[in-house]
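FIELD: query
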Amino acid sequence: MHDLHNTTRTLRALGPVALTTVAGLAGKVLDRQGFNGVEFVINYGSVTATNATITPVVKEGDATGTMTSVANADLIGTEALAALPAQATARTSGTGKFVSTRVGYRGSKRYVSCGIASTTVTAATIVSIVGVMHSPSIVPQANP
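FIELD: result
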């Protein structure tokens, strides 16, 4: 199969949710069994605070209760590149808000998650994350 539809599965990893704490938000743990990789797509909605830095945090583990931060060597791209940095001026649509970024996971752990860390709190900041599981051992994948 050479199409994306039959060789991927999408799972909600986070949200959509408003950031209400500086500590950030933990993402749902995804089970990679049967898949060789995950691409996390981070969707940033309305962000009004110019001083806010919002960074995805990818974690992995052999068990769901013992997740640790992923080494950069096991990421495709970086969490920093997928982040929304602080801005000195008002945010504009398509650059500082209402954008999507991504970071991939190619490690060997069965369980992965992607959450959000934030340097400021603003109820106007809406974030969601979708996990796109890819490179399955069995195709085609069921729809949805």
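FIELD: remark
The radius of gyration is 15 Å.
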